């Protein structure tokens, strides 16, 4: 790794070498070099009056320990790809600690993994801005679920979690596969536009989405059927941890499905077309459908809806409290 150019006057040289012997600073620089970062250019100024100042341009990988410490706790630890970093440090403490830098990271072709069974956001280009260890802004565009996605954040601080406004479009099939509906995905075509908010909640992500379903055609059984032309409505709230979706709340008009997922089972409580019940799918038993009340005239619709949420050729145990 080569230091191509750096500008220092005599007073600045004395300040630079006075600051350099810090073990922490030396370790920081060596860690940066080991992770394939190169210092493309820099400038250190030490005016007779005022605080010393460093300006540097670096390029390399987003997964370097230095950038990972900057991203820590901000929800961007899994951002991976190439980066060009324009950094500025003001004052002796900032010169000794890169986490206090003002930095703009320009990323290209990056990706971010959300969870083990959730497709990553890919081909991200844009900028990430930090000031003294606090995330100040993210503007990224990429691809997710077969369509474009845009992420924009508001100004945040260390006390507030990462919150990004997101928007984009996606094919109907990949969206259903996101919820584990591989069989149903083949019966849905078209592209839907959506918008929402992505929030970092502790170690988890909270994703809120809305769509009018315009342009989507569904050949699923009633009440999930839809022609392409008329718009509909869809609202979804997802809780995602490192292993995948753990909670979901999906609504369309008066129809609602709420569920929880753990390592061995899925439980979904629904209120669809006035029919209230619960659907369970466990690794240790056949799926079960429990209904509080069922009008026999609506039985075909209810069983068709339950079948939509289960794989094909699945046995289903049905329990009805009031028939």
Overview of this structure, please?
There is one protein chain. This protein is of the alpha+beta class and 323 residues long. It has helices at 10-19, 23-34, 65-71, 92-96, 172-178, 182-185, 299-308, and strands at residues 6-7, 38-45, 53-61, 79-90, 102-112, 121-131, 134-144, 147-153, 163-171, 188-201, 204-211, 216-218, 234-241, 244-252, 255-261, 265-272, 275-282, 285-291, 317-320. The chain has a 19-stranded mixed sheet that branches. The chain starts with 5 loop residues before the first strand and ends with a strand. Mean pLDDT is 76; it is low at 1-6, 11-24 and 32-37.
Briefly say what this structure is.
By secondary structure, this protein is an alpha+beta fold.
């Amino acid at each position: 790794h080569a230091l191509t150019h750096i500008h220092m006057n005599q007073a600045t040289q004395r300040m630079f070498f006075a600051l350099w012997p810090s073990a922490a600073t030396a370790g920081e620089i060596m860690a940066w070099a080991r992770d394939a970062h190169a210092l493309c250019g820099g400038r250190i100024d030490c005016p007779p009056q005022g605080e010393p100042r460093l300006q540097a341009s670096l390029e390399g990988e987003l997964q370097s320990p230095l950038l990972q410490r900057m991203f820590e706790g901000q929800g961007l630890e899994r951002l991976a790809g190439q980066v060009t970093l324009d950094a500025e440090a003001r004052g002796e403490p900032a010169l000794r600690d890169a986490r206090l830098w003002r930095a703009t990271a320009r990323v290209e072709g990056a990706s971010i993994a959300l969870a083990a069974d959730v497709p990553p956001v890919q081909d991200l280009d844009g900028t990430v801005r930090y000031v003294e260890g606090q995330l100040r802004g993210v503007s990224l565009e990429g691809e997710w679920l077969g369509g474009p996605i845009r992420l924009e954040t508001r100004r945040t601080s260390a006390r507030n979690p990462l919150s990004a406004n997101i928007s984009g479009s996606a094919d109907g099939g990949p969206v259903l596969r996101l919820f584990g509906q591989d069989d149903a995905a083949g019966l849905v075509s078209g592209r839907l536009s959506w918008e929402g908010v992505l929030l970092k909640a502790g170690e988890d992500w909270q994703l809120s989405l809305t769509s009018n379903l315009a342009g989507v055609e569904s050949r699923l059984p009633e009440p999930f059927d839809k022609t392409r032309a008329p718009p509909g409505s869809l609202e979804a709230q997802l809780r995602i941890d490192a292993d995948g979706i753990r909670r979901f709340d999906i609504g369309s008009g008066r129809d609602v499905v709420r569920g929880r997922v753990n390592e061995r089972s899925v439980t979904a409580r629904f209120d669809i077309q006035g029919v209230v019940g619960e659907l369970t799918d466990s690794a240790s038993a056949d799926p079960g459908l429990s209904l509080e009340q069922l009008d026999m005239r609506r039985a075909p619709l209810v069983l068709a809806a339950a079948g939509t949420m289960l794989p094909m050729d699945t046995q289903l145990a049905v329990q009805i409290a009031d028939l």
